[in-house]
Amino acid sequence: MSDVKKVVLAYSGGLDTSVIVKWLQETYDCEVVTFTADIGQGEEVEPARAKAEALGVKEIHIEDLREEFVRDYVYPMFRANTIYEGEYLLGTSIARPLIARRLIEIANQTGADAISHGATGKGNDQVRFELGAYALKPGVKVIAPWREWDLTSREKLMGYCQQHDIPVDFSSKKKSPYSMDANLLHISYEGGILEDPWAEAEEDMWRWSVSPEAAPDTPTYIELTYEKGDIVAIDGVPMKPHDILEKLNRLGGDNGIGRLDIVENRYVGMKSRGCYETPGGTIMLRAHRAIESLTLDREEAHLKDELMPKYAEVIYNGYWWSPERRMLQAAIDETQKNVSGVVRMKLYKGNATVAGRRSDQSLFDESIATFEDDAGAYDQKDAEGFIKLNALRLRIAAGKGRKQD
């Protein structure tokens, strides 16, 4: 292990990564560089500096990546209306490629030999971090302590802290029974009673949203302005992408929007039950589909919907930096050139519903779609030939006596 002289660690300042700092120093006899990213997790990241310093870390990187996270990762993903297995809005998945990229960039800047992370050997994040790292720096060494050490429980981690005088300011406090991950797009909950798929999530678990039953009795209306598939303003006020998502999270949470309880298929092979709060993302998904319904050609929209599950799988499994994701992204972004306009949303007791949509690029023609007199804009007699041509193969088969059961 003497070939590793310096390693960059994705560092949160929590119990696991604090132990990892000392473990890397002891096991690899190397210098540790820490990297802490603020991607909107809702907690102060600056205290991580003092914790890292107390562990003898000399190079400490703490970065506010909220704007970049939403602009360059969340927004491109939502242009595809991306959901995994019909429900999950990929809140954890989409944060990992950005963190992996910064780990590699800092490793290059500091001359580090390796990177390290605190993801366990059972989850998806180890795959996402490492696929991203290898795509960006093929020869990088990755150290994943959870796949090497025998500190397999919280009790063992706390014992290691006591043995090595690692300061952990929450050792005496009641620990949440859930494993949680948060960023500007969502907060996730796993573990505890959620490991029983039959057990209902406790109401006091949720942190970002009120229950739909407790939400206000008066709906909230908002108008979202789109330019080329991205929201650029709320109620006519231009805002940066991360500020938009932050406001939508607040409005959605206040109205009980965005709760999700699913059992998903992890890439590593197991099923996992998780709960998620994605209030802003839920609003964004509904609104984006609404503006696309006006502005996308039918076949373009349908083909895009066919591509989406593959695109979602690519992101979920950690292939953001792959050629297939770039290819799909190029196709998706091409469809967004005319996706501009305004969507009016109604937020009410857990529901985000479309109350109106308009666009200068709209393909909706009222003179053709009307049930009133269309003044010759559409000749209904044309439909007869259209139907007969499309029925031709069905009529031939039926004429041959083929069963249609």
Automatic annotation (TrEMBL):
Q: Where does L-aspartate bind?
A: 120, 124-125
State where ATP binds. 10-18, 37, 118
- Domain (Arginosuccinate synthase C-terminal): residue spans on this chain: 178-396
**For this protein, what reaction is catalysed?**
L-citrulline + L-aspartate + ATP = 2-(N(omega)-L-arginino)succinate + AMP + diphosphate + H(+)
Q: Which residues form the Arginosuccinate synthase-like N-terminal domain?
A: 6-167
Please tell me where L-citrulline binds in this chain.
88, 93, 124, 128, 179, 188, 264, 276
Give the record's GO CC terms: cytoplasm
**Listed GO biological process terms:** argininosuccinate metabolic process; L-arginine biosynthetic process; urea cycle
> Which family does this protein fall into?
Belongs to the argininosuccinate synthase family. Type 1 subfamily.
Its assembly, as annotated, is: Homotetramer.
This protein's name: Argininosuccinate synthase
Q: Which organism is it from?
A: Halomonas daqiaonensis
Q: Which gene encodes it?
A: argG
